Amino acid sequence: MKNISKTYPGVKALENVSLELKTGEVHCLVGENGAGKSTLMKVLSGAISKDSGQILIDDIEVQINSPYDSQKLGIGMIYQDFRLVPELSAAENIVLGNEPVLNRFSFINKSKANQIAANALVQLGETIDLDNPVKKLSVAQRQMVEIAKAISKKIKILVMDEPTASLTKTETEKLFAVIKKLKNDGVGIIYISHRLEEIFLIADRITILRDGKLINTCPAAEADRNKLIKWMVGRELENEYPRIESKPGREVLRVQNLNSDRLKKINFSLSTGEVLGLAGLVGAGRSDLANIIFGADKKSSGKIFLEGEEVNFKDPRDAIDNGIALLTEDRNLYGLIMQMSIRENISISNLISLLKGPFIQYKQENKVANEYLDKLKIKAPSIETKVESLSGGNRQKVVLARWLFTNAKVIIFDEPTVGIDVGVKFEIYNLINRLVEEGIGVIVISSDMPELIGISHRIIVMSNGEISGELTGDKIQQENIMELAVSNL
Ligand SMILES: Nc1ncnc2c1ncn2[C@@H]1O[C@H](COP(=O)(O)OP(=O)(O)OP(=O)(O)O)[C@@H](O)[C@H]1O
Ligand SMILES: [Mg+2]
User: Fold this and answer.
1) What is the pLDDT of residue 332?
2) Looking at the structure, do residues 221 and 255 belong to the same domain, yes or no?
3) In contact, 193 and 30? CB cutoff 8 Å
4) In the chain, what percentage of residues exceed pLDDT 90?
5) Structural domain boundaries, residue 470
6) What mean pLDDT is predicted for residues 355-373?
7) How far is the CA of 34 from the centre of ligand 1 (A)?
8) pTM metric for this prediction
9) What is the pLDDT of residues 410-442, one digit of tens each?
10) Closest-lying ligand 1 atom to the alpha carbon of residue 395
11) Residue 480: which residues within 8 A CB-CB, separation 6 or more?
12) Fewer CB within 10 A of the end CB, N or C, for the chain?
């Protein structure tokens, strides 16, 4: 790609950006939220048109005006936002747009489709019920279907835009094995991720974008974490995890002898003034626990107390009204209204506090939205910008802002920094600290171990539906967490 430029109303998304990809190379593309990574890849896949610049494949200039053009040229693309059709089965999604599977009446040849889909999934080492509609699959499974879809065709170039954002460690390893195989077959891979550890595991070369401009392209061996952060953010970050002292105050939440079909005898309490981390392997029951507290799932026995009073939420709405917020890892579920503005998406969660009699106080609404735009560094021309035109990470920040504006007493963050760049991660940790200092109970679920250790004052480890231990002070260490996490398997 040579000197690619792209301007959106009010935003120069790309300015003369060039990117070169070799066969059998993993080329990582990094940069802050809104730097232009997805835009550059959408130009390559024909999802959007460029204003200027050239695309050459094997030294020959090509015209890519639609996703169909790029497919014909052997370019596979895994988009950051899911593009699956929820109502169709996994198999149907995998072969969608793959003509050989369609007969002349355009009906999908089901057995052939299933065969292609099964082949792709075998490569990934996944077993997914092929007949199930995709909407019934977990987020991670849906991501695996996306990946299977991309590798089920004959490809020369594969673009992955944050493929691991919703994958677990094991699934990520499976994906890396596939990347290795594709690499050996000579496929060139462009890989976008905010997980810097991953980059150093797989990258041959790295390209850094900032504010739509090319900052640098270098061999991975010549970069390190600090250099990369400096190039991305434009300044050095002294400390990735801002810490505050723990000052446990009064109890805000207590869970007593809680059981469900997946959980056994859960007992813990949460105080103001502390960040409580929830650790455990995937499937240990952390999200199940969060969902029960949030009224999204049912417990079979046990009690939950909020500020000393027993509560029994019938649904999430009830929980929200009573001061519990859950930032789910599934961004789509309690997600955004794409055609509405940032302002509307933030204020919708808490319109009541904006009312004076029957009227919305627009001044107040603007003030709140502008505050969050500023605090979370949401990259947009104004609070009136529609959410659909934001970059992936910036959409995630709007979800965050919405929850922060609910006047919650307890906030549960389930993977709060997935898809968010290092600079803003730091801001989010600061924000979590500020919430704690304001007397809000905070629980953080995270698979990012350094993050969990970096920000928690106390860590409860779950293993196979039970709490297998609690760590505080200098006992909070990766080895101790891992030991407890597997203790019940
Ligand atoms: N359809 C659109 N309309 C208007 N502006 C857009 C549109 N799509 C992207 N932008 C803007 O272009 C810029 C680059 O966005 P892009 O999605 O390429 O960022 P990114 O590097 O992929 O970020 P992230 O890490 O958050 O996914 C951002 O400022 C974004 O708001
Ligand atoms: Mg993006």
Assistant:
1) 52
2) no
3) yes
4) 46
5) 251-485
6) 82
7) 5
8) 0.75
9) 999 988 888 788 888 888 898 889 889 888 999
10) 26
11) 471
12) C
